[in-house]
């Protein structure tokens, strides 16, 4: 007892601050995580007694063609989204770092989509890629003799357009990450390379790109996680259509849980999403985050 009192006397403030945090974490993180896993084995009823059904909800996944298509769409969206987002963020950071005039103005312009309401941006994007002649892109295409495109109404184009919207939305934040990384590279390395006769491209490829490895890894992780959690663009612009071509895993999960009120099967889909993100993150950590001294 004396030892406990002494420990409390020395670290009372730590315990006072930590206990509410741990209680909050348990109530809003640990408990929902455990309970949602239990839900996957139940036929959950909002009113009435829930019923244990074993693996029936898990087996339903393999009979749900829309769920399988949504998983494929999510992987396809990630393919369209991750690398272009990283490339555009790096390009914008290089433009800012180059010392062009009105640098602060360009920073604000590039970062503006990040702080702008996504609903507003989605509305603008919907107008730009409208499948009618009044859409901005179709209007511009008419000047070079290209017929109007359906874009969001075309199964083969809609997902790419949604990926473009997400790229436009987050490229500003990606730019900030890369810009911070560029600022940390010592200038004397570029001066030494210039003395050795290295071109600007060679300096970038041999100095800038390798030294940005921690930033590459961090941006890769967050863009991958973000791509598999994509929901808002499909919800606002296409409602998963046409022909479920933009139905992502999270969007399908939302429909199952909050439209059909099938919370048990929605919990299964949430764990599928969790496992996919976990596996991909571990693979990325293994092959792109090998340097333990950096990460």
Could you walk me through the main structural features you see in this protein, from its secondary elements to its overall organization?
The chain is mostly helical and 295 residues long. It has two domains: 2-39, no CATH class; 63-288, MetI-like (MetI-like fold). It is 73% helix and 1% strand. The protein is built from 13 helices and two strands. A two-stranded antiparallel ribbon has the order 1-2. A hairpin with a 7-residue loop joins strand 1 and strand 2.
The count of helical stretches stands at 13
Question: What structural class should be given to the helix and strand makeup?
Answer: mainly alpha
Q: Could you name the CATH homologous superfamily of the largest domain?
A: MetI-like
Radius of gyration using CA atoms only: 25 Å
Overall number of strands: 2
Mean pLDDT comes to 88
CATH fold category name of the largest domain: MetI-like fold
Which CATH architecture of the largest domain would you pick? Orthogonal Bundle
Strands across the major sheet, in which order?
1-2
For the biggest sheet, the summary is: 2 strands, antiparallel
N to C succession of SSEs: HEEHHHHHHHHHHHH
CATH class wording of the largest domain: Mainly Alpha
Helix content: over 70%
């Amino acid at each position: 007892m004396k030892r406990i009192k002494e420990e409390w006397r020395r670290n009372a403030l730590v315990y006072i601050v930590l206990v509410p945090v741990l209680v909050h974490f348990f109530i809003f993180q640990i408990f929902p995580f455990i309970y949602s896993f239990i839900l996957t084995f139940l036929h959950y009823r909002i009113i009435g007694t829930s019923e244990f059904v074993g693996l029936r909800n898990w087996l339903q996944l393999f009979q749900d063609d829309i769920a399988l298509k949504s998983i494929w769409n999510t992987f396809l969206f990630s393919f369209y989204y991750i690398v272009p987002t990283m490339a555009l963020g790096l390009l914008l950071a290089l433009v800012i770092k180059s010392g062009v005039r009105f640098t602060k103005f360009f920073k604000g312009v590039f970062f503006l989509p990040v702080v702008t309401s996504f609903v507003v941006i989605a509305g603008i994007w919907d107008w730009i890629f409208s499948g009618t002649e009044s859409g901005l892109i179709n209007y511009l295409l008419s000047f070079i003799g290209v017929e109007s495109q359906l874009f969001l109404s075309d199964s083969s184009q809609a997902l790419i357009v949604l990926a473009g919207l997400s790229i436009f939305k987050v490229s500003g934040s990606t730019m900030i990450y890369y810009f911070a990384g560029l600022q940390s590279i010592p200038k004397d390395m570029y001066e030494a390379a210039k003395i050795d006769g290295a071109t600007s491209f060679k300096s970038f490829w041999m100095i800038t790109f390798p030294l940005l490895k921690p930033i590459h890894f961090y941006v890769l992780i967050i863009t991958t996680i973000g791509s598999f959690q994509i929901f808002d663009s499909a919800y606002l612009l296409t409602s998963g259509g046409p022909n479920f071509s933009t139905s992502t895993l999270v969007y399908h999960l939302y429909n199952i849980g909050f439209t059909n009120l099938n919370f048990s099967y929605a919990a299964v889909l949430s764990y599928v999403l969790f496992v996919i993100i976990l596996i991909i993150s571990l693979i990325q950590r293994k092959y792109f985050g090998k340097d333990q001294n950096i990460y």
